[in-house]
């Protein structure tokens, strides 16, 4: 494949944008080479600036669960845009998407919309602190909750890929209020609660981790967090920015039957436009401005184009009762095919999968937390990534990312991908 045009565009971008990108993991630093510039996308395919067609397994890092340029979403955005793009005043579409989201997600009465997953998590933690009157939070090594200061402590994917888990610019004062636990290790959480009795405002967790590759919670892990939070009057925050409206209509709360106190959303909920949200029961949401004391705001929050895209996306997922099952089956098929192709060439690997999230680790041990994810063979991942790219298959340019399966992928696309994996496996 040729990448002349992408290389030129990257060079021009790098003159005026730091590293040539507006979000670090796009820059290919962990796999080497030049990022692919996109021209357009449709369904399961990306078309890059050089005219190459790529089968896409990133899907804008999750939002495009029904494929790129999903016609009902495009139509809804175009129609709304004709009426004006932003007012800074309430619009009916905000209530419509809020009603729909609250009806799909268990255990929440109200939802507040923001512009990104980062904002959702940042606001959720402020709300948890305001509601509980406590200051410290527990997060898990390798979990990513966006780039706000409190979370840039062993933050998974982007931050890890660049080898700067603790970013300069985060003050010691902020960092000391974020206490680190180990994913899938309840003991590590218990120890922190014991050492900080009555100081923990909340535990924030990716209930299925997706930012150190895909890592499912061990049976009992989420229930254990629920019980620890109850015993210590702490808030349990599920960061479902990646898993919400992807693993089930009601996200992980529904999938594993565990109730969180505050749930964060992003990615799918915006249908490909910049949207985040956080939701909870009345008693917690009543702490939020303008009715409560915890301040939170946004000039473009609830933007009509973004709400129209998100509403149309959620409606499509809510009406198609088989979509999550179909996605799971496609992902399981891919899992089986990739695993066989790698095994045929004696490549040690671990594949983790939950619903339509899947990741391939070149590791001999089970990948259950940040430490085991970080042990995998990154050199081999680089060759795997570039081998697949050369075959027209686009996976995330980092071993710490999940792949996102979309309903637009056909079994023929999956077979093409598996054949490419077999071809690349031979060279690993
Ligand atoms: C992507 C992601 C975020 C951050 O969302 P942005 O929209 O990129 O700010 C937060 N939490 C999780 C689990 C994510 O996957």
Task: State Rg.
Answer: 21 Å
User: CATH H level of the largest domain: which superfamily?
Assistant: Type I PLP-dependent aspartate aminotransferase-like (Major domain)
Order of H and E elements: HEEEHHEHEHHEHEHEHEEHHHEEHHEEH
Percent in strands: 5-15%
How far apart are the termini? 19 Å
Kindly report the spatial arrangement of strands forming the biggest sheet. 4-10-9-8-7-5-6
Report the bound ligands by name, code or SMILES: pyridoxal-5'-phosphate
Question: What's the structural domain tally?
Answer: 2
Instruction: Write down the CATH topology of the largest domain.
Output: Aspartate Aminotransferase, domain 2
Overall, the morphology is globular
Q: How can the largest sheet be summarized?
A: 7 strands, mixed
Protein model, in words:
The protein folds into 2 domains: 4-69 and 322-425, Aspartate Aminotransferase, domain 1; 71-319, 3-Layer(aba) Sandwich (Aspartate Aminotransferase, domain 2). The chain contains 15 helices and 14 strands. The protein has helices spanning 4-16, 71-81, 92-104, 117-132, 157-161, 172-175, 186-195, 221-231, 251-256, 282-285, 304-319, 323-344, 370-374, 378-390, 411-425, and strands at residues 38-42, 45-48, 53-56, 110-114, 136-140, 178-181, 200-205, 235-239, 262-265, 276-280, 350-354, 357-361, 393-394, 403-404. The strands form 3 sheets. Strands 4-10-9-8-7-5-6 form a 7-stranded mixed beta sheet, with helices on both faces. Strands 1-2-3-13 form a 4-stranded mixed beta sheet. The protein has a 3-stranded antiparallel beta sheet with strand order 11-12-14, covered by helices on one side. The longest helix has 22 residues, at 323-344. The two termini are 19 Å apart. The structure holds pyridoxal-5'-phosphate. Pyridoxal-5'-phosphate is lined by residues 116-118, 121, 144-146, 206, 210-211, 239, 241-242, 266, 276.
């Amino acid at each position: 494949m040729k990448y002349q045009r992408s290389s030129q565009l990257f060079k021009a971008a790098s003159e005026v944008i730091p590293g040539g990108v507006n979000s670090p993991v796009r820059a290919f630093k962990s796999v080497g080479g030049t990022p692919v510039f996109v021209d357009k996308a449709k369904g399961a395919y990306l078309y890059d600036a050089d005219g190459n067609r790529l089968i896409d397994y990133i899907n804008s890092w999750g939002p495009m669960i029904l494929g790129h340029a999903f016609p009902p979403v495009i139509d809804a955005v175009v129609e709304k845009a004709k009426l004006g793009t932003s007012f800074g005043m309430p619009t009916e579409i905000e209530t419509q998407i809020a009603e729909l989201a609250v009806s799909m997600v268990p255990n929440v009465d109200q939802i507040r919309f923001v512009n990104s997953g980062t904002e959702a998590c940042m606001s959720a933690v402020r709300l948890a602190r305001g509601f509980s009157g406590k200051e410290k939070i527990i997060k898990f090594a390798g979990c990513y909750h966006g780039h706000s200061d409190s979370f840039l402590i062993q933050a998974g994917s982007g931050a890890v890929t660049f080898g700067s888990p603790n970013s300069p610019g985060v003050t010691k004062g902020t960092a000391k209020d974020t206490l680190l636990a180990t994913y899938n290790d309840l003991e590590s959480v218990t120890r922190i609660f014991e050492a900080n009795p009555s100081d923990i405002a909340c535990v924030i967790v990716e209930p299925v981790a997706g930012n150190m590759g895909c890592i499912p919670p061990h049976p009992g892990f989420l229930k254990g967090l629920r019980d620890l939070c109850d015993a210590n009057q702490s808030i349990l925050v599920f960061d479902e920015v990646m898993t919400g409206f992807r693993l089930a209509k009601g996200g992980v709360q529904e999938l594993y039957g565990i109730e969180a106190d505050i749930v964060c959303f992003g990615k799918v909920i915006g249908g490909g436009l910049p949207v985040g949200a956080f939701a909870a029961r009345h008693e917690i949401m009543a702490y939020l401005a303008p009715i409560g004391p915890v301040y939170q705001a946004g000039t473009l929050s609830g933007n009509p184009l973004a709400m129209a895209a998100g509403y149309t996306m959620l409606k499509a997922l809510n009406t198609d009762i088989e979509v999550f099952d179909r996605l799971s089956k496609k992902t399981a098929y891919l899992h089986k095919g990739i695993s066989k192709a790698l095994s045929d060439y004696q490549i040690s690997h671990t594949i983790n999968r939950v619903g339509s999230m899947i990741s391939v680790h070149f590791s001999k041990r089970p990948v259950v937390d940040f430490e085991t994810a970080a042990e995998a063979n990154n050199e081999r991942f680089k060759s795997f990534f570039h081998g697949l790219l050369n075959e027209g298959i686009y996976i995330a340019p980092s071993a710490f990312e999940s792949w996102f399966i979309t309903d637009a992928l056909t079994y023929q696309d999956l077979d093409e991908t598996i054949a490419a994996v077999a071809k690349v496996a031979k060279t690993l």
